[in-house]
Amino acid sequence: MDGRGDMARIHIICVIQNPADIIVCPTDFYEELIMTMPLINPSEWEHMVQTAVAYGNELLDELQTLIDQWTDFLNTPNFVLYDRYGIPLCIATSEHQTLGLRYRHPLVLHGEVFATLVSAFDTTSLGESKPFQTLLLKTALTIMELTEWAETEAERRGEKVRLVMEYGLTPEVVQLLSLCGLDDSAGKALMAFETAMPIPFQGMEVLRRYLIAQAWRYRRQFPWLAYLPDGLLILQPWSREKSRYHVEHWLDQWTREATFPIRAYLQMMPNLTAFPEILKETQSLMQFANRFGLDGLINDAVERHMIRFLLQMTPESLEDLINTVLGPLLQDEHQATLATLKEYLACGQSLSKTAHNLYVHPNTVLYRVHHAEKLLGITIKDTEQLTNLWMALEGHTLLENIHRFHGS
């Protein structure tokens, strides 16, 4: 204990199912597991949360002090320190300070690059000096402590997600969420990430640290990040457009540098009341994506409103449904008719809107719809036949997306 609370230094060794898998857990997380099973008492959490926040701010203060020390050592503020994921550690760095910075000096500890110093002059000759090595060591230790602190915060929030899934939004759970920074003040974007293939525990750790760094960026206000069994959940008060931009950017960067694929799902959460239902929906969609081997942003491959039905089907039974219902429309000579029928139903059976979207005359749309009915031996005015047709068309779109994702 050094005045920072027991979470700063004390760890407990926890042995899990496989005796070979031994993990180190922060003390407060171990206590949390005990305290939340089966009773939840939020009043006992307030002090611990306040202590955790204060400790995080203290570490960020230490980081800023180190930046000041690097400034003195280099005799210039014209540099940037980046972590291993390319996130700037110089909290107050403005954009103009990065102009003309062309020398990159990897900072290495125990053979591993933990940060990169980017400056306007070559610092290689300084690397062996004692002041440089002292700063390097202090920076590495501070980044390590910040990383462990952030992981503990994400673990804590992950337990809250588990409680929401298990108990719903009881008053106690709502209070626990509020203590961890999640309230009903505004709508949020929910972004879920998980691995798209079985990986060792070390790989999961790399993924979570990467996402934490991307979403947090060492700001004072720690975002709402929560561990999921196979990944990480991120809640941010962003628009759909902004959220999609960040998700696609993070996925693209990960794809270029990582060794295993991941998937993501984005959904807007209008209020806290919707949290349990959206969590269940996200879990179902991720299970479906796992079954069909999808990676990347699965919003582009899965229609969320059809997921409950599609989840019950194997790839083989889905193909059987498509072939049985759509039959003749799957032939090459009827592709225009199939595409028109899809668009027509997607447009609420509006001839004018379908014609506008497909750049054809409304009479062409009408002809193709009637031709499709004739080929399939159905009428879309019949509710049961329309339902089967819509399911088959959605399944056909899904398989097309799966083939596109897999490059086949």
| Multimeric organization | single chain
Count of all domains: 3
Largest sheet: 5 strands, mixed
Radius of gyration: 26 Å
Strand proportion:
5-15%
Word description of this protein:
This protein is of the alpha+beta class and 408 residues long. The chain folds into 3 domains: 42-182, no CATH class; 184-312, Alpha-Beta Plaits; 313-405, Arc Repressor Mutant, subunit A (Orthogonal Bundle), CATH 1.10.10. Helix content is 51%, strand content 14%. It is built from 13 helices and 10 strands. The chain has helices at 27-35, 46-74, 130-167, 171-179, 201-216, 240-257, 275-291, 307-310, 315-326, 335-346, 351-358, 362-376, 383-405, and strands at residues 11-15, 22-26, 79-83, 103-109, 112-119, 188-195, 224-228, 231-236, 262-269, 296-297. A 5-stranded mixed β-sheet has the order 7-8-6-9-10, sandwiched between helices. The chain has a 3-stranded antiparallel β-sheet with strand order 3-5-4, with helices on one face. The protein has a two-stranded antiparallel sheet with strand order 1-2. Helix 9 (315-326) packs across helix 13 and helix 11 (351-358) packs across helix 12 (362-376). The relative contact order is 0.07.
Short description:
The protein is of the alpha+beta class. 51% of the residues lie in helices and 14% in strands. The strands form three sheets. It has a five-stranded mixed β-sheet with strand order 7-8-6-9-10, sandwiched between helices. It has a three-stranded antiparallel β-sheet with strand order 3-5-4, covered by helices on one side.
